Amino acid sequence: MEVQAPSHVPAERIVQFDYFADPGIADDPRANSLRLRGGPSLVYTLNNGGHWIATTAAVINDMLAQPEVFSSFPYLIPKQVSSPTPRPFAEIDAPDHGKYRALLAPLTNPKLIAGFEADVRNLMVELIEGVYAKGGCEFHVEIGQKFPIFIIMKLLGLPPQDRDMLIDLTDKVINAADPDVRRKARDQSEAYVTRKVAERRGGAGDDLISAIVNGQIDGRAVTDAEAIAMVTNLVHGGLDTVRANMTFMAHFLATHDDHRRQLARDPSLIPNAVDELLRWLSLPSLARCVKRDIEFHGVQLKAGDQILMPFILGSCDEAVHQNALAVDFTRKDTKSLTFSGGPHFCPGRAIARLELRIFIEEWMERIPEFRLATGSRAVGTGGVVAGLRNVELRWDVER
Length: 399
Ligand code: HEM
What we know:
Elements: E1 14-15, H1 29-34, E2 42-45, E3 51-54, H2 57-64, E4 70-71, H3 96-101, H4 110-132, E5 136-138, H5 139-144, H6 147-156, H7 163-175, H8 179-200, H9 208-213, E6 216-217, E7 220-221, H10 224-255, H11 257-265, H12 270-281, E8 285-290, E9 294-296, E10 299-301, E11 306-310, H13 311-315, H14 349-366, E12 371-372, E13 379-381, E14 387-389, E15 392-394
Parallel strand pairs: 1-2, 3-11
Antiparallel strand pairs: 2-3, 4-8, 5-15, 6-7, 8-11, 9-10, 12-15, 13-14
The structure holds protoporphyrin IX containing FE.
């Protein structure tokens, strides 16, 4: 949906940029965002209802540090696909936001995460062994889509038979270009979560749904509506992001022989390689909404303006990193905006890093040499989290 340029937007700031549907996304979603590097630090597109785009680390960091000016509600671009009222965690602004985030303490408890490692490793080994003898797989569907959903369902205590249905709904909520498809999928996943929340209220389970639904906010019980919103946010936050990162990482290693062999020779580089690839990929593009008229980095912003933050433009900013577009597994500072910043800094980052590290460790141990199938071509997708489909990997099977 394209709109007229608002009067406060200078004509020279207007660019063509549709983060769902630009034609370049299929070839390379990263490149489609990176083409805005080197231009003004705030530009405006008439696509998707009209919105600003922040193109440097400095602007994005300034926005994330000022939630009183740059609100997380409405959360999505275009506005009509956002919820009608702010919902925890992602859409609530500080200071109230902190009260909800306190319920997620288990996610960032290093002891709990370390205790999770053996299960994560077993799941990964099971998945790799399931495809190894075939000498190939379509990575996105056979591994990338399954692994993170196994993990989040374990965390939430959800039954394994619901897996395929949840994968499908999450994909639609996050990536479908049609707002009606997104809305319908969101309603369906909420109906599912509503049932689970009701089952766990008052119980003694040690899963994350039980911790949330039986938690307290300001000394009162969490309401059903709050619990449903929080659990839904966890499911959406933890699936597509990990799936997309794993799939891009598998594709990168299949197509970069030197990098892949470097990890095969020296697996101790894997933890840093994960952080470097997370930085280089920086797949999420989140938004904020301006709360009051303000001059900001040389432009006039009006209350209600939305600003997209393609985090890749911050993580691959030469003002922050030398040779920012190069992947260097020995890079000392891998600081990035991949997990956002400020009060909404991703609470699942430790679990995400664990999943990605174990994926590469176990894969490289069993399949150190692999490639893309001859003549195959991966296809990029846009949206809040850029994705990659049709990643046909091949390897030689040792008998
Ligand atoms: C590589 C994987 C991941 C990436 C790149 C990622 C990225 C992000 C980003 C950018 C945000 C901030 C949104 C904002 O500022 O508005 C966020 C929030 C969030 N993430 Fe993650 N995430 C990942 C994995 C996970 C996992 C595994 C979980 C759960 C186990 C999770 C749960 C959440 C939740 C609940 C929020 C909302 C937090 C809040 O608004 O306070 N994420 N994530």
